[in-house]
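To the team - S-adenosylmethionine complex, inputs and output below.
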Amino acid sequence: MRNRCTGPSGGGMLNGVPERIHEVTAFLAEVLGPRAPLTVIVDGGDHGAAASFAACLAAAFPPSARAWTVDAVLGLSGPSGGRSDSALNVLEPAADRVIVYLRSGPRGRGLANGEGERRAQVVIDHHDPEWPVIRHVHPRLADPERWYLAESRAFFGARAAGWDTKFGDDLPAYAMAVEVAAPRPGDLALDVGCGTGRALPALAAAVGPQGRVIGLDLTPAMLHAARQAGREAVADLVIADARRLPLPDAVAGLVFAAGLVQHLPDPGAGLAELARVTRAGGKLMIFHPSGRAALAARHGRTLRPDEPLNRENLEPLLAATGWKLLRYDDPADHFLALAERA
Ligand SMILES: C[S@@+](CC[C@H](N)C(=O)[O-])C[C@H]1O[C@@H](n2cnc3c(N)ncnc32)[C@H](O)[C@@H]1O
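Output:
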């Protein structure tokens, strides 16, 4: 088991630690340091990962602060890591305790039903131990403005080049979703969080030569992959944050958002921004090319009632942000929620 803060030699290293681990642990140390006295518990991840990450986190605290800011940085590394025999089953977050959970998917040691994540104030994607990425920090610990943009880019940037190879089979599902959304010929259609632009050809065909399609994404590597795939021929590609779109009010006839809403730190604020740029009667298509339960299973967890795309949560959230839900489908092979701008 590795329980020291070490990494392989080579490029991208800082003081013997992969630079990405350093970035993540340095940020957490900065956020957690002033909250002394504190116990930080690291759990989840593959075998030994919690102890190893905890060691890196402890090392990230400045030497002068270590003695008094952090009582203990524990990496739980029992026989099953974060499974049923883990201390996470008895520990709840407390004012002087922070749980950092390493998400590593079905083969990892984390709680398979998402309990580890539910109890954690910090969730880190740990599929690649050399490239950990922060996916959640409780807003009481840090304003999302401090980490969300950079960490989202780190997460999706690392996946951009292989995205279409991995998920290319899904294109007919995107065409089906665009058909259901039925933008008018001549409309402006936005694909927000467009990634490599898999929906763009279908959107361009639907709005026709008089229409216009803009793909927006905050990850430059995703838009680069979209250009490489030739999708600039059918749409303008713009680097933009869905929470602050560089567009005037009420210009779009359709907003297409595939795999976006669940990644926003404040889904309600995001939906309100999508409503701002959509004309009355315009549509919002929230889509994913697999059903929610199937996707959760792929990630090694079960669905939780508090997820924003649960119908019971989504319908009132849409209503509160200027949308009326028209249709909600969630079979195994796709997720689709179609709403109309009120
Ligand atoms: C799961 S991927 C889906 C990509 C594409 N829509 C697809 O279905 O293949 C999510 C995409 O949303 C982008 N994204 C995440 N948060 C965003 C935000 N706040 N603003 C714009 N894009 C965002 C990511 O960069 C990533 O490309």
